[in-house]
Specification:
This protein starts with 5 loop residues before the first helix and ends with a helix. The strands form three sheets. Strands 6-5-4-7-8-9 form a six-stranded mixed β-sheet, sandwiched between helices. The protein has helices at residues 6-9, 18-32, 42-56, 59-67, 134-149, 181-185, 195-209, 230-242, 258-268, 281-293, 401-424, and strands at residues 79-85, 90-91, 97-107, 118-126, 155-161, 165-173, 214-222, 245-252, 272-275, 295-305, 310-319, 323-326, 331-337, 342-350, 359-370, 380-391. The protein contains eleven helices and 16 strands. By secondary structure, it is of the alpha/beta class.
Length: 427
C-alpha cells in the first residue's frame, strides 16, 4: 500500500495553496490537539498533521518534497462531479459567444447510509404587527411540530423578533426541551420589522453549539420588509458564511423584499422561498428541516479564476432548490443531499478567442466542502476546471437535455424578476 502523502494527511490535493494548507490544518488541529483528547492514536495523528503543516507552508521545503513524490495516482473523492456543456465546441471569433456549463454533484452509493449529521437550528419568527392572525398561528404550529420532528441529539433555538429580538427558546438539545408548547402558543404580534435584530440574536444562539460536524442553520419566517438595517443584515450574512452558518428564509405574502432576502441566503448557500398560502408554511418548513438532516456534503464552495477574455455572468442553483448565486468568487453553492444531487448552471460570455488557441479555459478553480456525518472528516478540496475545444465550424447540435432543463429554470427566474420589476414600476 502506498505511503500516505503529507497532502493526504490534510485531506488536500497536491496543488493545494499555502492558504488551503493553513485552513485544513486549523480545522484538524482543533479536533485532534492532545491537550483536548486522550483517545489512543490521537496524539500520533496530531503529530502527523503538524509535520504536514510545517513542510507544506515552507515554500523551499514544499518544493523539495514535491520533487520526490511519485507520479500521482488518481484520488477517489467522496463526491462525484459531472460537467455538461451547451456547446461541444466554440468557434474562433472576435464576437462574444455565450456558453453554459451544468455541474452536477452526487455521492457514491455507499455513502447514502452514512450517519445523519446533527442539526443546530435556530428558528427565527417574525412577530411584527403584520403577522397577526393566521400567519403567526401557522408559524407557532410549525414551531411546535418542528420540536417533535427533530432527533434528541439535535440542537434547537427559537427567536422572536419585531423591532427588537427575544430568545424564546435558548439553544439546547431537543431532548432537554420540555413544556414549550405553552410558551410558543403565547407568542403575540406587535411592533415593526427589523430583521437585523432577529438575525443577530439567532446567530448568538447558533454560535453556542456551532461545530463543523453539525449542520448550523438559521430558518427565518417573515412577511415584511426590514427598515434601515439592510447593510447590517448583509454584513451579518457575510459573517455567517465565514462561520459555516447557513441562512434560509420563508417569505409570506407579496410584501416581503425577495431580492434582499435572496442576497442574504445566497451569501450562505441557503435558500429563499415565497409562500403564497399560509397553510403551506408547516409542511414546507418541516420539509426544509428534514432536508438539512439529509445533507452529506455541506457548504460546497467554488473558488475560481477566469481568463481576461471570459466573463462569468451568472451562477444559478438548479437543484435541490433553485436560487441565484451571483458571479463573484468564492461562491457558496449549497449542499449535496444523500438522496438527490446538487446542480448549478454557470453562464459564460467568451469575448474573443485569439488565433493559435486550441481550447478556451472558462474557469479554473477548486470545490471545497465538508462531510459533517463522517467521523474525523476535514474540508475536502476538489479541482474543477471548465474548458471547451475550438472548432473552425460552428456547433449547431442541440444542447443535452439536462442543459435545456437547467436553462429553462434560469429563463423562468429572469422572467419572474422582470415581472416583479414591472409591477414595482406600476406596470
Amino acid at each position: 500500500m502506498a505511503e500516505e502523502t503529507l497532502y493526504a494527511r490534510l485531506g488536500l490535493p497536491r496543488d493545494a495553496s499555502i492558504e488551503e494548507v493553513q485552513k485544513a490544518y486549523r480545522e484538524l488541529a482543533r479536533g485532534l490537539h492532545p491537550d483536548m483528547h486522550v483517545k489512543p492514536g490521537v496524539t500520533d495523528r496530531f503529530v502527523g498533521i503538524q509535520e504536514a503543516y510545517e513542510v507544506l507552508t515552507d515554500p523551499e521545503r514544499k518544493s523539495k518534497y514535491d520533487e520526490q513524490l511519485p507520479a500521482e495516482v488518481k484520488r477517489s473523492y467522496p463526491v462525484i462531479v459531472g460537467t455538461h456543456y451547451s456547446r461541444k465546441t466554440l468557434t474562433r471569433s472576435f464576437e462574444p459567444q455565450l456558453i453554459y456549463s451544468l455541474v452536477e454533484m452526487n455521492i457514491h452509493k455507499e455513502a447514502v447510509t452514512s450517519n445523519r449529521p446533527q442539526l443546530n437550528i435556530s428558528l427565527l419568527i417574525d412577530c411584527s404587527t403584520s403577522m397577526q392572525g393566521v400567519r403567526l398561528d401557522a408559524a407557532k404550529e410549525t414551531a411546535i411540530e418542528l420540536i417533535r420532528q427533530l432527533q434528541p441529539t439535535d440542537i434547537l433555538s427559537i427567536v422572536r423578533f419585531n423591532d427588537r429580538a427575544e430568545t424564546l427558546l435558548p439553544a439546547n438539545h431537543v431532548s432537554n426541551q420540555t413544556n414549550l408548547d405553552m410558551q410558543i402558543q403565547l407568542l403575540s404580534a406587535s411592533g415593526g420589522t427589523e430583521i437585523y435584530q432577529g438575525l443577530s440574536q439567532s446567530m448568538q444562539e447558533i454560535r453556542r453549539f456551532r461545530h463543523a460536524q453539525r449542520i448550523n442553520h438559521i430558518i427565518m419566517i417573515t412577511d415584511g420588509k426590514t427598515y434601515g438595517d439592510e447593510d447590517k443584515c448583509l454584513n451579518l450574512a457575510d459573517q455567517a458564511a465565514t462561520q459555516q452558518v447557513g441562512i434560509s428564509t420563508f417569505g409570506i405574502s407579496g410584501q416581503w423584499n425577495d431580492t434582499f432576502l435572496d442576497t442574504i441566503t445566497a451569501k450562505t448557500g441557503g435558500s429563499s422561498l415565497y409562500i403564497s398560502e399560509v397553510k403551506d408554511i408547516k409542511h414546507l418548513l418541516l420539509e426544509k428541516a428534514v432536508g438539512l438532516g439529509d445533507i452529506y456534503a455541506n457548504l460546497v464552495t467554488y473558488n475560481f479564476e477566469t481568463p481576461s477574455q471570459v466573463d462569468l455572468t451568472n451562477v444559478f442553483r438548479i437543484n435541490p432548490d433553485s436560487a441565484p448565486l451571483g458571479n463573484t468568487p468564492p461562491i457558496i453553492l449549497g449542499a449535496v443531499p444523500r438522496k438527490n444531487k446538487l446542480a448549478f448552471l454557470l453562464e459564460f460570455r467568451v469575448n474573443a478567442i485569439p488565433q493559435g488557441d486550441q481550447q478556451v479555459t472558462l474557469a479554473e478553480g477548486k470545490l471545497s466542502y465538508q462531510t459533517p456525518g463522517v467521523a474525523n472528516a476535514s474540508t475536502v478540496i476538489q479541482r474543477l476546471d471548465l474548458q471547451r475545444p475550438i472548432s473552425p465550424v460552428a456547433d449547431n447540435s442541440p444542447p443535452p437535455t439536462g442543459i435545456v432543463h437547467a436553462m429553462s429554470y434560469l429563463t423562468l427566474y429572469r422572467m419572474q424578476e422582470r415581472a416583479r420589476a414591472d409591477i414595482a414600476r406600476g406596470d
